[in-house]
Amino acid sequence: MSAPSETSVRRRRGGIGAGFLVIFLFALGVFLLPFAFPTEGAIVALFSSTAAFSPNTPGGRPTAAMAVKMRDPGTIRVLVTKDSQPVATLIPTRRVPKGWVTSAWNGTNEQGVPMPDGVYTLQLAATSGQKGYNASRRVTIDRVRPPAPSLVVASAGAADLPTGTQCAVGATPSTYSRIIFVAEHLPGGRIINGPHFVTAASTYTWNWNGRARGGTAVPPSFYDITIETVAVNGFQFTASRTCWVGNLLGTISPTAPVPGEVVDVHLATPAGISVAPATRVTLQLVRRTGTPGHPGSVVGRAIGRPATTIAGHARIRLPHGVPVADLWIEARTAHGTALVAAGSRP
Questions:
Q1: Same-domain status, 287 and 331
Q2: 103 vs 32, 68, 91, 92, 106, CA distance in Å?
Q3: What is the DSSP letter of 1?
Q4: Which one has a higher pLDDT value, 281 or 161?
Q5: What is the pLDDT, as a whole number, of residue 9?
Q6: What are all long-range contacts of 14-21, with beta carbons under 8 Å and residues at least 24 apart?
Q7: The predicted structure's pLDDT at residue 156
């Protein structure tokens, strides 16, 4: 009998090697599968809870909500612990169907005694058939009302704002908070911007383009912006500020005039496009009694008579005897009104 050819030997060795490789990969897969596709989470799709609450505190969140979404019917138990020591049984061991299971902790122990401020743990244990799931969530009892968020409001023309922005409202919470901005009394109804979830000492700014819900420009006026904030432990803060929306921006030169000086008024759209030189413009000096975004009135009585001119030659003389910081220059066209400060205020 002839000896096997070199080619057949190579094929036989290759087949044996491939067989060992398949066996090795199968064994490796059996070992690694539980880690690559862990059974944790196979029966629980979601486990969430309130991060912080203020039980028995006026204005605070009274309970910590908890929700479990089961992928399959099974058994669950939820305990409240503190430093690994049991505090209360939120959900005793019981059978539950597929779907949502919810509960809430009121901040008391098994005897109904209110627990002190601090960090607690919700311990979930769930089973379904041979599958098991264990997880925990932290919840903080915090009965201290945090400081109110700080607010900064700037109107177009009174500050450098992003192109197209006519009102910028910035809110900086003292703790993790949910923030909603509401522009009130607009044609077509209020505009709601949010909610936005902002971390402590971070600023979220809403840049409003001065348009209503349908996308049309609102009439030139002062508009109320309400800021509604809910802190992580449930305390609410509400504040209102005013913004000037004129659909027209204006600057003056010289930028630091003196009483009695003639100033040129340069007009542009919120998009930064200069108004055509032949556009009819009405200029009116008025008393400045405040600043948009701050408490109190902003515009007082008119000073002198209005002057009608064109945008290419828009200029007006400031009155003697009136500090320039106490003057607005109203510049009106058929499409908007610019409220231009003649002088700066601290």
A1: yes
A2: 36, 9, 8, 11, 10
A3: -
A4: 281
A5: 40
A6: none
A7: 75
Cβ–Cβ under 8 Å, residues 193 and 181: yes
User: Identity (one letter) of the amino acid at 253?
Assistant: S
Say if CB 120 and CB 86 are below 8 A apart: no
Instruction: Indicate whether 239 and 261 sit together in one domain.
Output: no
- Residue 60's CATH number: 2.60.40.4070
Strand, coil or helix: 27: helix
Interior/surface letters 110-148, b for 16+ CB within 10 angstroms, e for the rest: eeeeebeeeebbbbbbbebeebbbeeebebbbbbebbee
Residue 119: HSE in the Cβ half-sphere, 13 Å Cα cutoff: 5
Q: Residues in the chain, how many?
A: 346
Q: Residue 84: exposed, middle, or buried by beta-carbon count in 10 A (0-12, 13-18, 19+)? A: exposed
How many domains are contained in the chain?
Answer: 3
Write out the two tokens for 13: 């060795």
Flag whether 237 is in a domain. yes
For residue 84, pLDDT over 80 is answered with yes
Q: Which domain does 107 fall in, by range?
A: 44-141
- CA dist., res. 284 & res. 306, Å (int): 5
CATH number of the domain at 239, please. Answer: 2.60.40.10
Q: Model-level pTM?
A: 0.77
Does some domain include residue 2?
no
Note whether 264 and 282 are same-domain residues.
Answer: yes
Q: pLDDT tens digits, residue range 33-61?
A: 222 233 345 799 999 999 999 999 999 99
Flag whether pLDDT at 134 surpasses 60.
yes
Of 141, 166, 187, the domain-final residue:
141
pLDDT tens per residue, range 291-309: 898 888 999 999 999 999 9
Alpha helices in the chain (DSSP H): 6-36
pLDDT digit string, tens, across residues 226-254 = 999 999 999 999 999 999 999 999 999 99
335 and 261, same structural domain?
A: yes
Q: Which token pair is 207? A: 């840049």
The strand order across the sheet containing 167-172 reads: 150-155, 167-172, 204-208
- For residues 212 and 254, membership in a common domain is answered with no
Regarding whether 264 and 281 lie in a shared domain, the answer is: yes
Per-residue pLDDT at 345: 77
Place of tokens 């629980």: 44
